[in-house]
Write a structure and sequence with these properties.
Layout: H1 2-23, H2 26-42, H3 45-53, H4 55-105, H5 110-120, E1 127-129, E2 136-138, E3 158-160, E4 167-169, E5 187-189, H6 194-198, H7 204-216, H8 222-234, H9 238-252, E6 258-263, E7 268-273, E8 277-286, E9 289-296, E10 309-315, H10 324-338, E11 340-353, E12 356-366, E13 374-384, E14 387-396, H11 404-412, E15 415-416
Antiparallel strand pairs: 1-2, 3-4, 3-5, 6-7, 7-15, 8-9, 9-10, 10-14, 11-12, 12-13, 13-14
Helix pairs in contact: 1-4, 2-4, 3-4, 4-5, 7-8, 7-9
């Protein structure tokens, strides 16, 4: 049975890889985009007119387009499902095979086998040491499977591990982070004293990374982490503070799941984070300038006075025929005339976006809807087929670096569907 389960898992993985290779190949992607556009036309008035004039031809074209779109979309769901179930079946087959072999040799007890299964299905980052028996366990378990003691500390007083600077409750016999035994010489401290006593020799970024790691393992709560993070950032000079915040945000946001946004009508395609809100629209700022979509960062609660967002705008004004340098100067002049307390922060014309040379413009201004907030904007623009595609990131100037790594990934993924 174990061999059969393992073989089935490998087969599902191979089939899933084959489907994924087909679905995400350039040829399939091109065929899907063309079929999707045809399908949209078939569902519109154009399709109705075609049915009246050339019914057989229209029926065949629309039917073929629908089949292509359906096949690709089924493949988009089937491939990850087969890979997921295949991986699960393969892991289960290996675990059961290993368990059966150990059982036959009489080398493990039932309890040890259960512990091995638990550790096999988890990554190293999800394991911690029990403070009472020193055995590794899952960070998500309420009770240790070896000694059956609760992970909830009975007191708010802590002692510091001399090996890794981790804080543990005073009744701990082992460090939950590194597994070393506590000695009488370990420092006793309150929770508020921990940052200064345990990490005074580390750089600010190293301190933040250490606390972020402890939060990920469930040894520090989100509230405690944010409090400590704010204290560390306040102690850093403003110029260095921005660099540290950017580096930390880059490490924290790499795990965010991204979706694909695509709008053939405007010829735009981009990745955006699952946690960001998407607002589609065709809001016209002028007769020929259209806001295609807006992505809004997660709401951070009552303290947040402005939600950072990224906007895609298309300018298809008649007779545009502008070069990149002239259009950049036009945008600067327009902002100077229309924005309160406009400040030019910098420009650049060396970046490549969607295979095209792009201009970059950084500036700040006062939001007319919130007088006390100064916004910082990064605007990127490219010219394709006499249209200007602009991507703008709006942020509270004090929080500009918080979402910058995510925004840069979104901008780098931008494509113009040709």
């Amino acid at each position: 049975m174990n061999v059969g389960l393992l073989a089935a898992g490998i087969a599902m993985i191979l089939i899933g890889v084959g489907i994924a290779a087909w679905v995400y190949s350039p040829q399939t992607d091109q065929a899907y985009n063309q079929a999707y556009a045809v399908n949209r036309g078939c569902e519109s008035r154009i399709g109705d007119i075609g049915e009246l004039i050339v019914p057989e031809f229209t029926h065949d074209v629309c039917s073929n387009a629908s089949q292509i779109v359906t096949s690709v979309e089924i493949g988009q769901y089937a491939a990850p499902s087969l890979l997921t179930f295949g991986a699960a079946a393969t892991i289960a087959g290996v675990v059961l095979w290993f368990q059966e072999g150990k059982k036959n040799k009489g080398e493990q007890t039932t309890q040890e086998i259960l512990e091995d299964e638990m550790l096999t299905t988890e990554s190293v980052e999800d394991r911690v040491y029990c403070r009472y028996c020193g055995k590794q366990r899952s960070s998500t378990q309420e009770f240790c499977p070896s000694c059956h003691k609760s992970i909830v500390p009975p007191t708010s007083r802590n002692k510091i591990c001399n090996y890794c600077a981790m804080s543990m409750s005073v009744d701990s016999e082992y460090c939950g982070n590194c597994g070393h035994t506590f000695q009488d010489r370990q420092t006793i401290a309150t929770q508020n004293d921990i940052p200064a006593q345990s990490m005074r020799n580390l750089t600010p970024l190293d301190k933040l990374e250490r606390w972020a790691d402890l939060k990920q393992k469930g040894l520090v709560t989100e509230e405690e982490f944010q409090k400590i993070k704010n204290e560390i950032l306040k102690s850093i000079p403003d110029k260095k503070n921005s660099e540290v915040k950017y580096q930390l945000a880059n490490k924290e946001q790499v795990t965010d799941k991204f979706f694909i946004y695509e709008e053939p009508a405007f010829g735009t395609k981009m990745l955006y984070p699952q946690s960001w809100q998407r607002e589609d629209g065709d809001i016209s700022f002028s007769e020929d300038t259209v806001e295609v979509v807006r992505f809004i960062s997660p709401n951070e609660g009552n303290a947040a006075t402005f939600q950072e967002n990224l906007v895609i705008v298309v300018d298809n004004s008649p007779g545009l025929n502008a070069n990149l340098h002239n259009y950049l100067q036009y945008r600067i002049s327009s902002h100077q005339l229309n924005l309160n307390e406009f400040r030019l922060l910098g420009t650049n014309s060396d970046k490549i976006i969607a295979g095209e040379l792009a201009y970059m413009l950084w500036f700040s201004y006062r939001d007319p809807n919130a007088v006390d907030i100064e916004l910082k904007v990064m605007e990127v623009g490219i010219i394709v087929y006499d249209k200007v595609y602009m991507i703008s990131y709006y942020s509270n100037i004090e929080k500009y670096f918080d979402h910058l790594p995510t925004v840069e990934k979104m901008i780098d993924s931008f494509e113009v569907i040709r």
